[in-house]
Amino acid sequence: MKLYESPSPNARRVHIFMAEKGLECDRIAVDIRAAENLSVEYLAKNPGGRVPMLELADGTCIGESVAICRYMESLQPQPSLFGAPGIEAAKVEMWQRRAEINFLLEVAGAFRNITGFFKDRETCVAEWGQVCAERAPKMLTMFDEQLAQTAYLAGENFSIADITLAVALDFARMVKVVELPQLANIERWYGEVSARSSFAAS
Questions:
Q1: Which partner from 47, 73, 77, 125 sits 20 to 30 angstroms from 89, CA to CA?
Q2: Are residues 91 and 174 in the same domain?
Q3: Distance between CA 101 and CA 111 in Å, rounded?
Q4: What's the predicted TM-score (pTM) here?
């Protein structure tokens, strides 16, 4: 397996997931600043032009970080990070989606539109970036309230939902475009998940 990647929250999500599973693969750096992910060769493998992308030995290419993680789960089902079939899996999916849509994507929207990081290839609207920057921290209350009731986002077991939210928080702290509130339950939870050995994966 080959993982085409560039430093990003999505690549880090895959790194942590693989570390939790004890899996490894070859890694190929993709320079997104130089638009290598938009080259004809790369787009032929991954039409979305996103990173990371996983290429299998038979030439199959899997784009999108959560899809990559689902494949990794099939290779090494334990420990289960997508939840047991049924209600647990549904709860993991629900909180994973909430962490991604309601927080990670808001932070990314703020970063891309305020900083103009990709202004050479996309239209950046600073005003929209400010809207995202204001919405992102407000969304954290939902997660804090959930973590007042459960050890992890989807219940009593660590899952990909926790990886997504933790990676998103680290990204927000790194890019400094969102003012993060101090929320006790999130602080408790973050201290525990970030201490896992998998979070040192790079």
A1: 47
A2: yes
A3: 15
A4: 0.93
